[in-house]
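Severity: low
Component: inverse-folding endpoint
Summary: output formatting inconsistent between runs
Steps to reproduce: submit the following structure tokens with default settings.
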């Protein structure tokens, strides 16, 4: 009998959910979100919605793309990374990831509305992190955009503390998440034509981890 769900993704989801709950309770992430004015319950709700939203991609448009010369992701690695095999037809559908793009943008807007941050400082910090993300990110054919985990959050924290030490935490989150989205995704839209994949998601795949870690680590460092 065929199960209505894949056991491995379900087990991974349960494990990650339990891990996040434990981390919030012991206070590691609570410290970060406390700097942003969130309670432990609100922090867990944000993490949960981000995790669930990471599985939701909203298609925006399609672009013509190059066909890969060969299979760029080995079948074993594709199964491990839970990357579905889709037939490539010469076009790549560009989508936006809810958990890795829309929720960070919405939370950044919330922080902007609750913190008196000068617009020039916000724009400067976002531009700085975007430049760093564009520089260190690399397109990975068949998968998406990859980048070192801690470069962007360290950059966001340093820039935010230099611009506004009193409000460095919200500025670090805003500049970190939006900077990675702009630098590693939006500024690399043209690179998506060379992925050789029928589907690419803004804020999804490799950059979801980068955006998530950037927001948390940048706040902890700020």
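Observed output (run 2 of 3):
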């Amino acid at each position: 009998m065929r199960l209505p769900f894949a056991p491995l993704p379900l087990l991974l989801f349960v494990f990650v959910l339990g891990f996040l709950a434990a981390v919030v309770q012991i206070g590691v992430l609570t410290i970060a979100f406390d700097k942003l004015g969130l309670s432990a319950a609100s922090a867990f709700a944000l993490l949960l919605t981000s995790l669930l939203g990471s599985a939701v991609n909203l298609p925006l448009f399609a672009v013509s793309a190059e066909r890969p010369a060969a299979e760029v992701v080995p079948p074993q690695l594709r199964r491990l990374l839970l990357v579905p095999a889709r037939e490539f037809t010469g076009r790549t559908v560009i989508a936006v990831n809810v958990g890795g793009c829309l929720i960070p943008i919405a939370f950044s807007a919330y922080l902007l509305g609750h913190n008196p941050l000068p617009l020039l400082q916000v724009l400067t910090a976002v531009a700085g992190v975007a430049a760093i993300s564009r520089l260190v990110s690399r397109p990975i054919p068949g998968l998406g955009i990859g980048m070192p985990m801690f470069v962007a959050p360290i950059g966001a924290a340093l820039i935010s503390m230099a611009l506004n030490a009193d409000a460095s935490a919200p500025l670090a989150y805003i500049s970190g998440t939006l900077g990675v989205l702009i630098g590693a995704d939006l500024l690399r839209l043209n690179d998506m034509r060379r992925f050789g994949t029928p589907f690419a998601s803004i804020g999804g795949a490799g950059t979801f981890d980068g955006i998530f870690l950037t927001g948390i680590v940048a706040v902890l460092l700020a």
